[in-house]
Amino acid sequence: MGEPVFYLGTHEPGWLARFSVPLFVSRRRLARCVRLPRAAGRWSLDSGGFTELQLYGAWTVPARAYVAEVRRIAEEVGGLVWAAPQDWMCEPIVIAGGRIGPVTFAGTGLSVPEHQRRTVENYLELRARAPELPFIPVLQGWKRDDYLRCWALYEAAGVRLERESVVGVGSVCRREQTGQAQSIFEALRPLKLHGFGLKLRGLERSAHLLASADSMAWSKGAAQRGNLCGQAHPRGGRSCANCPRWALTWRAQVLDRLQGSPQQRLFGRAA
Questions:
Q1: Which residue in 6, 13, 111, 126 sits closest to 68, CA to CA?
Q2: pLDDT in the model for residue 265
Q3: In Å, what is the CA distance from 228 to each residue of 9, 179, 244?
Q4: Tens digit of pLDDT for each residue in 8-55?
Q5: pLDDT at 96
Q6: Are strands 167-169 and 138-139 parallel, antiparallel or unpaired?
Q7: Cα–Cα distance between 235 and 4 in angstroms, integer?
């Protein structure tokens, strides 16, 4: 396995043209752009699935439309390493619906096995429709054994995950403090894993188990803590939630902290 890659999550598509560090950008943001930026470095595409299921309780974008969007993005932006499929997250709140603070979840009303089946079927459809596009398989579940069963679904469909350059692991970003995410990653060895939406605690626990990870924790933290970069923001913003200076500073701090970890395989300075 090569050196792990740390993708800085951003909801600002324009950063693709401004920064060469690896970025993670949502399709929901890029799809709104009349004119897409040209990437200055490598990056990967988030499908926006969590927001899709949170708002609607289902995917409202047909697979053929998603393929068309990703094809346009890949051709016009360039530098795309991989794109997430239209997977189905398995958090209980996503399935049952409800509220977390001010955020309302519509609820899918389905089961974890059904979410897994739809995740695998979507990957197969995307691959069949556009074999030239870099869609990756994603494992979904809630308990550790759920992910192993999802792995078996791919095997049954003829997809050898051990041969894939990267395999996404979903529904882990809110369980880092308990060590559940690390347990799941360990169970999925020797796959080359991507951890979606990890925070610093999760990165510290699991960086040695991953081929890559992404995080937007810099933005969420800044929204609560105000101005962290010490400089004025465009349009008078009071916090650093959209601030590139703070995002890059935070990224450097995270990589420095990970380099000081006792784990042996960590995200390098260039990643």
A1: 126
A2: 47
A3: 18, 29, 11
A4: 999 999 999 999 999 999 999 999 999 999 999 999 999 999 999 999
A5: 98
A6: parallel
A7: 36
Alpha-carbon distance of 191 to 148, in angstroms, equals: 12
Asked if residues 194 and 211 have their Cβ atoms less than 8 Å apart, the reply is: yes
**pTM of the complete model:** 0.91
The span from the CA of 239 to the CA of 236, in Å, is: 9
Mean pLDDT of the chain: 90
Which residues in the chain land under pLDDT 70? Answer: 1-2, 176-178, 221-237, 260-271
- Cis, peptide link before residue 85, omega less than 30° from 0: no
CATH topology of domain 5-215: TIM Barrel (3.20.20)
Q: What is the pLDDT of residue 260?
A: 63
Q: Distances in Å between the alpha carbon of 213 and those of 8, 34, 203, 244?
A: 9, 29, 8, 19
Burial of 178 (0-12, 13-18, 19+ CB in 10 A): exposed
Residue-wise over 107-130: b if at least 16 C-beta within 10 A, else e?
bbebebeebbbbbbbbbbbbeeeb
Amino acid at 173: C
The DSSP string of the chain is ----EEEEEES-TTHHHH--S-EEEEHHHHTT-SSPPPPSS-EEEE--HHHHHHHHSS--S-HHHHHHHHHHHHHHH--EEEE--------HHHHH-EEETTEEE------HHHHHHHHHHHHHHHHHH-TTS-B--EE--SSHHHHHHHHHHHHHTT--GGGSS-EEE-S-TT-TTTTHHHHHHHHTTTS-EEETT--HHHHHHHGGG-SEEEE-HHHHHHHHH---SSS--GGG-SSSTT-HHHHHHHHHHHHHHHHTSS-SS---TT-
